[in-house]
Design goal:
Strand content: under 5%
Number of helices: 17
Largest sheet: 2 strands, antiparallel
Distance between the termini: 32 Å
Protein name: Polyprenyl synthetase family protein
Keywords: Magnesium, Metal-binding, Transferase
Order of helices and strands: HHHHHEEHHHHHHHHHHHH
Oligomer: single chain
Helix content: over 70%
Cofactor: Mg(2+)
Family: Belongs to the FPP/GGPP synthase family.
Organism: Streptomonospora wellingtoniae
CATH architecture: Orthogonal Bundle
Structural class: mainly alpha
CATH topology: Farnesyl Diphosphate Synthase
Strand order of the largest sheet: 1-2
């Protein structure tokens, strides 16, 4: 069996089971606290899966736990935490600890989304290492098992993602067992987020097969697939736990929608202009997979407006071509810059940052949260990889 990570297979390694975790946190301490809650939760679940089947524990659970614990920026729990603090939620104590543990369940929702996204996009790499479905397929090949390794890998990864989603609900509900009123308030954003992310994923999938070049399509996909579950709904969830007013929730949601959309535009730019060492993904991965991003839609429109048939042909033929070399990707990136598409997207990203932070100016939220959310809007975009 794979060597267990401390804290995963031994629940309570970081703290006593019934000891509330302090939640007076910022930056690295917040990241560490979220990791601690995830380790504790997964450690408890490891006992269950070990009792059911050792192979499942070794092949599926271990990979899922490693995926959840060894990567990610914890953006969603962080926004949920600051939604809680923005609405006057306590900085520490049992309720703060429960709110942070519930927020940590968002990392399992994220795992569900990424595992399935990688299968749908046939992405080979995630966070600088083989995607989970690729790991499963490679194991199938190395063992000489019967059947199609790739089919097995995709199927096993889907099962792992299903488990992540089921456990997300388990962790969220369990964290709030002593706060039933808060749990009920938070059900609305929790459930809405799930529906929105699935709809957004479908729209993304459909835009590729329809070769949808409308600029409105990636904006809608970004709104539902990224902004809603990356920032807007986590903020809404945290604020609801703290029994926020409608005015507070509205301001936080508008901030989250703008900042979450900016995140996706930053990601689109990094796909073409980033570095694999920083992003953990091959440069041009989205282009090869046929994703209809805003920068491509803007570039195609501008090329057509100029009557530049060669540019239109270059872009159309590159979208969805898995055989593109790195040099081909650079050619497309340079062309989009020459067409002004890169600058247009960068300007839209900057406008979204201003729009989002502007929502905080007169919002009825705590001063510490206002300052932190402003800082995180610009800092997270700058570091986004």
């Amino acid at each position: 069996m794979t060597t267990p990570r401390p804290g995963v297979w031994t629940p309570g390694a970081r703290q006593q089971r019934d000891e509330p975790r302090s939640a007076a946190l910022r930056d690295g301490a917040l990241h560490e606290a979220v990791l601690g809650h995830l380790e504790d939760f997964l450690g408890r679940r490891s006992l269950t899966v070990l009792g059911l089947d050792a192979d499942f524990a070794d092949e599926v659970f271990d990979r899922l736990a490693r995926f959840v614990l060894d990567g990610g920026k914890r953006i969603r729990p962080t926004f949920a935490w600051w939604g809680w603090r923005a609405a006057g939620g306590a900085e520490d104590g049992p309720e703060a600890a429960a709110a942070l543990r519930a927020a940590s369940a968002l990392e399992l929702v994220q795992a569900f989304a990424l595992l399935q996204d990688d299968v749908m996009d046939r992405s080979a790499v995630r966070r600088g290492r083989p995607a989970v479905h690729v790991e499963f397929a490679n194991e199938h090949r190395s063992q000489g098992w019967f059947g199609d390794p790739d089919r097995y890998g995709e199927s096993a990864a889907v099962l792992a993602s299903d488990l992540a989603l089921v456990w997300a609900e388990d962790m969220f509900t369990g964290a709030l067992r002593h706060m039933p009123d808060a749990r009920e308030r938070a059900r609305e954003p929790w459930l809405a987020m799930h529906t929105e992310m699935v709809v957004g994923q479908f729209l993304d999938l459909r835009s590729q097969v329809r070769s949808d070049a409308a600029e409105s399509t990636p904006l809608r996909v970004n709104r539902l697939k990224t902004a809603a579950y990356s920032a807007e709904r986590p903020l809404h969830l945290g604020a609801s736990l703290a029994d926020a007013s409608e005015e507070t929730v509205s301001a936080l949601r508008r901030y989250g929608e703008a900042i979450g959309s900016a995140y996706q535009l930053r990601d689109d730019l990094l796909d073409l202009y980033g570095e694999t060492a920083r992003t953990g993904k091959a440069v041009g991965a989205d282009l090869r997979e046929g994703k209809r991003t805003l920068i491509l839609a803007v570039g195609l429109r501008r090329a057509r407006e100029r009557g530049d048939r060669d540019a239109v042909q270059t872009l159309d033929s590159a979208i969805g071509d898995p055989g593109l070399t790195d040099a081909d990707v650079r050619t497309v990136a340079d062309l989009l810059a020459a067409l002004g598409a890169r600058k247009a997207v960068e300007q839209r990203l900057a406008a979204l940052l201003d729009q989002g932070t502007g929502c905080l100016t007169d919002a009825p939220i705590t001063p510490v949260a206002r300052e932190e959310l402003r800082r995180r809007a610009h800092g997270a975009i700058a570091r986004m990889t």
